[in-house]
Every structure is written in structure tokens, then in C-alpha cells.
Write a structure and sequence with these properties.
- By secondary structure, the protein is α+β, with helices and mostly antiparallel strands.
- Among the domains are: 144 residues, Lamin Tail domain (Immunoglobulin-like, Sandwich); 66 residues, no CATH class.
- Helices cover 17% and strands 20% of the residues.
- The protein has a six-stranded mixed sheet, with no helix packed on it.
- A hairpin with a 2-residue loop joins strand 1 and strand 2.
- The termini are far apart.
Length: 311
Amino acid sequence: MDDIKWFAGVLLVFGIIWLNGKTHQTERQAPHATSTPKMMVIPASAKNPPRTVPAPANTAVPPPQTNGVIYQTPVADTTSTNLSPLRGALTITSLSRSTSVDREYVVIQASTKNNYDVDISGLAIRSGVSLSGQSVGKGWKLYFLENVGGTDPIRLKPGNRAYLISGRSPMGVFASGDGFEENLCSGFLSKGKTFAPSLSLQCPAPKDYPLPLQPNALSDACYDFVKTIPRCTVPTSIPKSLQSDGSCQAFVFNRINYSQCVNNFKDSPRFFSGEWRVYFGRSTTLWRTNREIVELVDADGKLIDSRKYGY
């Protein structure tokens, strides 16, 4: 029994010695290991977000997309150097052709989207075929019968129009390209004259003029007569029953005319109509009878708008 215990103890000692030597061998071999250590995977949400690096100046950057729609920045049209900066601010809205030069005209209009007045003095209307044309001059914002030679720039407010008429002014005092803006009293100017297109006859009614006060107040009979006088009409006579009524005659013959209408109503908010008449004073028509291109150009000859017919 003692021999068996002695033998087991010897085996235990040799086992411990063998295991200790194996451990030292493994530690000596560790520096020569060729296996790749495992890496810990970091979730994408835990990484730092990617930085946005500006693209080089000569690199095209695609526009951003939202729900499949690509938003593009508008780019100015530079495909034609012949287009005017006023393109879109003014348009040719209609053209009247006639064998009579006084009835031939082009209508241009300022866009209602404009946020400024457009000065058309210096612009020109011309044929894109023959290149003959006429320039717009200056005019009278408020025209009086004694005016000679326009001095005011012709400016169109948003929505305003101008009639560019080939012929001469019926009033005979306009230089080529000059004009005037119609007003509440302009209908008086048409007496004995022919305007194309016709002037508006919406003058204030004579009964709405400021009436004289006492002791020159109008009699009932005179006032009844005044109510019958048509708008924009200068009276040339009165009933016989009123011929001895001095106050009535003074009012009828001195107060109902263009100049007095202007003096009485020029401060009205609707006095100016927003429509200009420009006369080129030609003796022959400007436009061809067929196959014509009507162009509106700026002072540099650049195209604002055009219309054609006969093609």
C-alpha cells in the first residue's frame, strides 16, 4: 500500500514538470503566430457622420432631389445677344393695318407684372423685312391746347398702353414721335377732328362741374338746360328763353370746354387714362401689305417683341 502511494506521488511530480515546460514553449512561440486577430465591428449609426466636401469649381454638381423632383435654378437666356433687357416688360398687343396712314397703328402694352414704369422714349418700331422704322419721342403727360413740342418722357405704368400711330396728329402740333396721354377730358379734343382709334367720350357731365355761387347762381331753367348738354361737347348756342340770362351764358360758353374741364378735374384719381397716343407724322404707310414682321426694339436695336402676318 505504501508502495502504491509512493508510485502515485512520483507520477504527479513528473506531470507537473511536463505541464510547466509545455507552457513555456507556447509563450516562446507566441511572437511567431500568423493568425489575424479578430476586429470588433462598429455599427454605422455609431460612426462619425460623413463630411461634405465642396466639389472643385470645374465639377458639375447635380441639383438636390426631393421626392423624385429635381429643382433647377433658373438661368438667364444668353443664347441670343439680340434680346433686349425689356423683353417681357413690353409686348405688342395688336396691329391696325390700313391703306390710310392715319389709321395705321401698333399697340404696345406694359406687363401688369412690372414693378416699375417703363420709359418708351427712345424705343423704336420697325419692319423686320425692310428695316424701316420710327422712334418714339417725348410727349405731354398733361396736354394743353397751346402746347408745342413734347418735353415729358413717355412712361408706361404696369398695364398701360401706347398707340404708335404712323400718321400725323389731328391737332397738327406734334413733332415726329411726340404724343400725349389721354385723360378724363380728352374727348373735347375730338371736336371737328378724326382720331383713330377714337378718343373716349367719358368726360364729366356739365351738370357735375362746379356751379357758380350767388349772386351768379344758375336759374332752374338754366340748370335744366345744362343737364341736356352731352359730355365732351362745347355748347355753341342756348335756348332763346335764356339768351338774356347773363349768368347762364357765362357758365355755358366759358366753363364747358377742355381747358376748364382739366382745371376742374385734374386732381381726380381717375383723371389719367393710362393710354398714350404717339404720332410719327408720316405721309406714307409704314407696314407692308403682306409678309411683314413688326418689331419693337430698344435704343440699342435689341429686340423687345415682334409680330408677323402674311406668312
